[in-house]
Structure formats: structure tokens, C-alpha cells
Design a protein that fits this description.
The complex is a heterotrimer of chains A (260), B (639) and C (224). With 639 residues, chain B is of the alpha+beta class. Chain B has 17 helices and 20 strands. In chain B, strands 6-2-1-10-18 form a 5-stranded parallel β-sheet. A 5-stranded antiparallel β-sheet of chain B has the order 12-16-15-13-14. Chain B has a 4-stranded antiparallel β-sheet with strand order 17-11-19-20. In chain B, helix 4 crosses helix 5. The chains are: A alpha+beta (260), B alpha+beta (639), C mainly alpha (224).
Chain lengths: 260, 639, 224
Amino acid sequence: MSSDNTFSLNLKIWRQKGANAEGKLVDYHVDHVSPDMSFLEMIDVLNEQLVRKGEDPIAFDHDCREGICGMCSMMIDGKAHGGYKNTTTCQVHMRLYKNGDTIVVEPFRASAFPIVKDLAVDRSAIDKVMIKGGYISANTGNAQDGNSILIPKPIADEAMDAAACIGCGACVASCPNGSGMLFMGAKISQLALLPQGQPEAPQRALNMVHEHDTLGFGNCTNHAECEATCPKGISIEHIARMNREYIKAAFTYHEKTRSE
Amino acid sequence: MAINLDAKSPAGDLKDKWSKHKFESKLVNPANKRKFTVIVVGTGLAGGSAAATLAELGYNVLSFCIQDSPRRAHSIAAQGGINAAKNYPNDGDSVKRLFYDTIKGGDYRAREANVYRLAEVSNNIIDQMVSQGVPFAREYGGYLDNRSFGGSQVSRTFYARGQTGQQLLLGAYSGMMKMVSKGKIKMYNRREMMDLVTINGKARGIIVRNLITGELEKYAADAVLLCTGGYGNVYFLSTNAMTSNASAAWRCHKRGAAFANPCFTQIHPTCIPVHGDYQSKLTLMSESLRNDGRVWVPKKENDPRKPADIPEEERDYYLERVYPSFGNLAPRDVSSRQAKYRYDEGKGVGPTKQAVYLDFADAIKRLGQDTISGRYGNLFEMYERITGDNPYKTPMMIYPAVHYTMGGLWVDYNLQSTVPGLHVLGEANFSDHGANRLGASALMQGLADGYFVAPNTVSHYLASTTLEKVTTDDPAFKDAEQAVMLQTSKLLGVKGKRTVDDFHKALGHIMWEKVGMARNEAGLKSAIEGIRKLREEFWQDVNVPGDAGHFNLELHKATRVADFLELGELMALDALERKESCGGHFREEYQTADGEAKRDDENFAHVAVWEYTGSNSSPIRHKEELKFEYLQLATRSYK
Amino acid sequence: MATSAVTHYFRSSIGRKQLVAITGLALCGFLVGHLTGNLLLLVSSDAFNIYAHKLISLGALLYVIEAGLAAVFLVHLGLAMKLNMENMQSKGKYQQKTKTGRGTTFASQTMPYTGVMLLVFLILHLISLKFGTHYETTVDGVVMRDLYRTTIEYFRSPIATAWYVIAMAAAALHTSHGFASAFQTMGWNHGKYFKNVKRLGLIYAIVVGAGFAGISIWCHLKGV
């Protein structure tokens, strides 16, 4: 039900027609913002206003709106997903803001993530890194019984911590260097923790890191901004495990790796 | 045109049907597999696993997804878990029991052979997922852990925290990425399927819209697999993702694929209540919460007190009261209906007076807060983020919401629709859940279809069918493309006053009120009227700004809503024609004295299969009679 | 084109930053040695001069050690600059004003600046002390360089002392991030121990920074 405690906001939103167009921040005003609204619902309301006026609505990525698909992005006041602990943009609620606030909304920015339109960016670089080894090569068929591979609870839990990555790219956007080490480290670490991941561990680390480096991601300098921003709370310990896996692989792996 | 509804269930003993069928299926020799191209639309559990497996077999796979990456398909949002008949806890589970629970849970409206096969391959799914590195929850000894879900008395649900769907989807996605790296899958992201292309009566390709450039693209293949999920977003508010839509399935329906049981929708009892008319979607709280949470309402009507101030004896733990043997783990349709009865009686809570409490106080007292937060921590956090309430301190408020659609395109035992070559997998088909789906079974079905069923049956189709060479230069592609372009320009040309969401919300309102948890003849008739009127208004007054040549989100929404406005009517019509209550389909005229669903096995033990006959004529209702050879039709009771 | 994994390593982001980390830790070790030597200034002029003389008497070996040290320093500096230049390219045309104060710290953000400052400092330091005024003294009948006097005279200037103190603050800042960061880069981050590594890094930064700066102030006071 609509309540009377609604308020008004000023927004500065990045508008950019396409990948190669010039963009700029444009001022908008939204009334009747309810504290129970999510941030994206607030943008929906604004878009409804724009459509009624015959203007082009703001393009932004979103899908599940429950914090798991990783589709929503946005830098809210300079912070990826608004900078609230373990929260994606779709789960940011307007009760965190107050009447008269001015909020700056920009797309995720990184050379590896070119802008598609307005607030939507192209994050296919994440898939490209995964294609180089973010998997265990187990073909469908008669896999052995699930319980024949025993995995101690603490190890399974730690692998799960890493596997929680939603591939949203907030780590890249928030990193001052635009580095992709956290999402990549999470995958390498998850599979390095599990016994099933061992056979391919060296190629995985070598090939994924190599691909990362060629896609325009920056280098990690351990700011740990990614860890502070990650909506799934993934720790940079996983980056450390990747670093370990990588050096081990570089100096002990026998087979020559393919560079392409 | 008469449609062929031969279910092709193999003869023989239930236990041997699938292995016999596999043996009798024709094979494609390894060297010939690379000569075939298969289109897979959708990259959820069904689409992702099918694409990966078909590519492993050697077929060339073209995979399409609507999001910016196949990893974002809405299977990712499934929380609770996946069923399998492993019987690890030694609590009496078996393939047969999983089969029985699923048939009973679906209120005896599913096909026995399909469901048995589902139960049979459930164990392989767990093994397959473990081998791919899915970090299922483990016990300290390293063994896989299980929990319970609604509608069953055994613990057979495997889980990965509260994000099982995510982990399974990422498993399927990783399998796809492996095959992309080998060049066997070509991935097309940000594409929406706009039409199916049939040539000589067979599915031979698709038309998609590139959502970024707005251009239409044509792709030809030897078979098409539709794995595009359900149509819950007809209701506007549902737990589905924003881009979950029915268009791919609906366009296939218009091209000749019959639609089965469209009225069977699942209303999930544990969602976060609606808070305002700007609301864009509903968020599910996993059914697994009912393992430890107790559902209650105040005994007094319109009780203004805070939950903490209501003493134990003035609370009605109605699920425990009405269903002593299943208690809080009664199936979804039953639990939702009971919640509806409570707020119809004026005992609902929260600002809308339509919610009920889900209380963890007892569980926290019994197990400690740490254990509870270990089990449900992320769900509790999510609840607090959305509502601002802390569920460790005050009971959650929950509310039923549209969650899943059991109906879908009709398929035979081979998962092939009435259009040869068009196979339909996962939630998009109708096959396994009857009139109600049990918790933790959707993930199971999606993966069963994609990993184990379709790869066999699609091979059989390719091996046993004469497929002439087809390219996208075929006139059929041109015609289909023209039709899409025509519809697009029509939408852009209306230039009316109301927004797309406006119409979608109006449709959702009709659907929820009249084709929702309880339905009746008068309501359904007025729903059909209302939807027709709304559809006319839509085509006269919708406002879609911009043009088709760029990333136009309003246009994308408009094409989906145009299809929902047609599908909604069919759902109401199907509900009107099914003059019985079963599972999620509850007709107020057909109930027992204590408000339970009253099935009519004599007249309705069949699948209602709808044939499209054109925009100006009524659809035809066909029947696929359901034969129960191994289970006896019985009244479904959870008391 | 097949390239060996080891070659990749030296071209990759992780490989190069691990070299930065290892050389950084080596330089940290060197600073501890240097500081210990400097403490002899507080003992007596003779003690300090004998220590310096012993180092000088190493002859050819000293050149080898110095060359090694220079190499370590150049690898650290060169790779860090290269990585930093790449990082400046990786955020695209528009830099958004990232409000931090969460992961990023003042120290982590200023690593390139404090690094360059330390390079300038090092050059001046070598010119004014190692290659500074050459005095001679005799201790126990042995003629040797009176580096003690060079040092005290140099720090007589308040500007020289102030610059030295500022540079040491930069060194403290640089190592306060760099020390623990090197452990993380090498992969030595374990939930159980890493907090202590961070603490150790902070203690190291304070001890080394304050140690060098304190001695320079002592020299200044001694000289005037």
C-alpha cells in the first residue's frame, strides 16, 4: 500500500547513447519515492515518467532482482552496488536515503567493460576468462557416486564461499586498477580447493590468468577494494590462493601451454 | 490440422521403460554428429546442460540467451535444493518413492512414464554435478548432506547453502564454457527468440532479436530445443526474473506446438509480501525455511498486537493443526491455500492483512542462533535487507506469490512437441509435475531433461528423420522475419498514452484476482472478457518510444506483454474448462467440506492440450488421457 | 605459438607483481640491516667507522653485493612502474570519483608516489653520504674513512634533516602497505595468520621509519 512517508530525490545519471558516443551526467528529479522501494524500482518510476514524456528511458541491466543473477550493476555515489555490505544494486532499498539527497549514478567503468548504453555495460570479458578454464572437464555420463569423493565440511564450505561469486563485475569496477583478480581468483580457488579440480589445476591457473591479462583488465595491487565491495563477501584470500596456484603451475607444469 | 498426441511412452515394465527406450533409439555415428547443428534457446539448467551435453557428443550447438551471459538464467535464483533418490540418510527413500511422491504431489495429473524416468536419473544428476565441482553441503565426515522439503517424508534434498540453483547453474554453465572453448558451442548473448521457422512441417530454425542493435537475425539448424522457462510473469508480480517471458514458447505455439495445461500455475506460500504498487517483482524465501520455521496467525480476527505480544495459546499454528503428519512441510499448493483461508477469515497480519507469520523462535531456542544462521543465514539477511525487519528477533511475514508454471508446451516421452524437431525442456514443457510441483523438483527436472533425456532423444530424432539441407535463405525465414518486423512496426506505430508496464500490471491484476489461488466460473468468464478488452486497448493505446534500431528496453517489454495478453486468455479458458480442483488449480465449485481440492478423475484425468487455430478463431481443446498403470488414483492427503 | 609457462610467468600480471613483491621484501630486509648498522652511530664514532671500514674492506665482494642490491632495486622499480602504467590504462576514459575508505587506504593509493619519492631520496642519499665529503681518521692505528663525521656534518643542516625525516615517513607509508601486500601477492594469506602479518607490517613500517628518522634527528642535534 502507498504510505505518506514518500520523499523526493535528485539524481545525476550517466547518459550515453552507445559504445562510441560521448556521455554525460544528466539531472533528474523523482518524487514519491517510498522507503520500501528498491533502487531499481525507483529507476523504474523515473523511466515511467520519461516514457510518458516521450523521452528515451534510461537503459540499465537487471534481471532477477533478488541479488543472485549478477545482472544489475551501477556505481551509486561512486561505489559499486552502492557500497552496502553484501548487497547488489537490486537489493539496495530507498530507506537508506533521505528526502532531498542527490545521488550520482554511473555505469561500471573499466576498459574491459565497454559501455553498451547509459548504465549498461558489456561484461563478456568475464565469460572469456571462464572459457579458458573455469570448469572441470567432466563430460556428462556415468560419473562416480557423489559420496565416493569425500570433502571435509570446512573445505566444502570454503569452496562454497568462493563459488558464491555472481560474476557481476563489481570487483573490477571498484578496483582502482580495473583488475579482474577477485572473480577469477574465486573460480581458480574454488576448483583448487576441491579434489575434483586437481587434475586441471595448473593449466587452469596459467590459461585463465593469461586470458585475463590480454583482455584489458589491470593488475592487482592489493587495495582490497574488491573485497570490501563484493556483494557476496568474497575474500581476497582466494586471490592469494590463485597466486599460489599460479606460481606453482608456472614453475612445475611440464606440458607447454598454448598461448591461444 | 489434426495434431498427434501420441505420448510414445514405451511399453513394458515401468522400471525398464527408459533403458529399453534408449536401446531402441537410433544413434548417430560419431563421424556424422558434426554434420548436425542444434539450436538451444535458453541457458538455464535445462538449456545449459543440454547444450553442453550435445556439444560433448559432437553436435554443433548454437546457444542463445537473453541476458548478457549464460550464467544469469533464472535457474540461478532457486534457493533450497535438488531432490534425488540416493537414500543416503537411510530413511526409506527409493526411486519408486520419489516417483510416487512426485505423482501424488502433482495430484495425479502427470504422465507416469516421464515421472519414473525423472526419479530414475535423479541420482546421476547429483553424481554429475559433484564431478563438475559443485560444492554441495557436506557433513564433517565429508559425506553429502541432505535436508527435507515439502510434500515428502524423507530427507532427499541436496543443497548448497541457500543458493543451490546458482551452484547447479554455474555447474551447467561451466560445462558450456568448456565446450565453447572447444568450438562446439557458439554462444549468442543478449538475443531474444522472436519466432520459430518451420520448413516442411519440421522445426528448422529461429528468428532472434539482437537486443543491443535491435536487428533481427536468422539461424538455421536440424533441431531446435526450447529451454526458455515458464510464464509466471503473466501475473506481472511473480518470483520470476524481469526478462522471464513466454514469448518463445508462445510463438512456437502459434507455429503449431500444442500448449498443455496452461492453467496449472504454482503459488508459492513463502514469499515476501507486496509493499506498494511500484513493486516490480516478488522475492521468494526458500521452502527449506519451513524445516525449522513454524507458520501461524493470531486466533483472533484483526488482532492489532505485535507478534511477540500474542501468547502461545492465542496463536493458530494452522498447518500443524490441519495436517498433523506433514505439518509445516505440507506441499506448496496446500500451504498457500491455507494461508489464503486465514486471511479470508480476517486473521492475516502485516500492513496488507494478507501475510502470515513464519516463526523461528522455537528453532532458535532449540538449536541456537548459530545453527539457524548456518542453515539460513543468507536468507535471513536477504529478508532483512528487503523488509528492514530482523527475523532472528521477530517472525518473518510471508505471503503467497506466483512462482512456477507446471503447464507448458506439450511434449511426448521424447520431449518433442507437436512440431517435429522442436524439443521442449525444463519448465517450458508440461511433462513432469502434473497440477503441482514439489519443492526441489524443478532443478531436478531441468537437469534430467538437459543432461540425460534430450541428448538421447534428440539423437534419435536426427538419426531417424530425413532432413533436407536448409539455409537461412529459405523463404520460410524471410516470411518469419517479415512477420516479426510487421509486429514491431505495429507496436512502435501505436504511439498511445499508456506505458507497457501499465498494461502488464492491469493484466497481472486480472490474473491474480481471477486466475489465481482460487478460481470460479463467473470470475474466469469475466477474466476472459477483461483480458480481451485489455488486449484491444493495448493495440490502440500503448506507448513504445524510440525505434527498433537500438537497445530499446520498452520495445522488448512490449513484445513480451503482447504475448502475455494472449496467453493469459488461454490460461483463463483452460481453468474454466477444467471443471475440477487439482493441485494448484483450485475451483471453488469443486471442494470438499473442509476446503480441500476435489478431483474429478472420471472426467478430468487427462492433459488438456490446446491447439492454436488463428488470431480470430477459438483454440481447440484436445485431451491426452492419463493412464495410471502402476499407481492407484487416490485422494491426495497430507493429514 | 607455444610459449613456456615460465616465460609467461615473467610477462603475466601475477608473475611480475610477485617479482615486485619478492624484491620489495628483499629491500625490506636490507633496510633492517642498514638500520642496525646506523644504530652504531649512537654507540660511538669509532664503532660506526670500524663497521663502515669492514664493509669497504670487502673490496670486490662489496661491488658484487652492491650490484645485486641495485639489480633488486631496479627490478622492483621498473616492474612497479610498468604495472602502474598499465593500470592507468585499465579504467577507461572517464575516471569516476571512487569514494573509498573501505579497502583502499591512503598508503595503498600513494604507492607510486611514495615509491618515486624514495627513488629521489636514494639518489640524493648516495650523493651526499656514500659519495659525500671524504674525511680520514685513525682507529687503533688503522687509517680509515671517517664516515661518522660526514654524517654528522650532513645532518647539521636542518633542511637535510627535515627532508630525510619526510622521506622516512614516505618509506614507512610505502612499507606499511607493501610488507603485507607482498605476502598476499606471494599467496601467503591464510585466514589464521594474515592478521598478524598485517600487524607485523605495520610494526615494521613504524620501527624502520621511526628508527631512521630518529637517528637523523639525533645526528642533527649532535652536530649543532
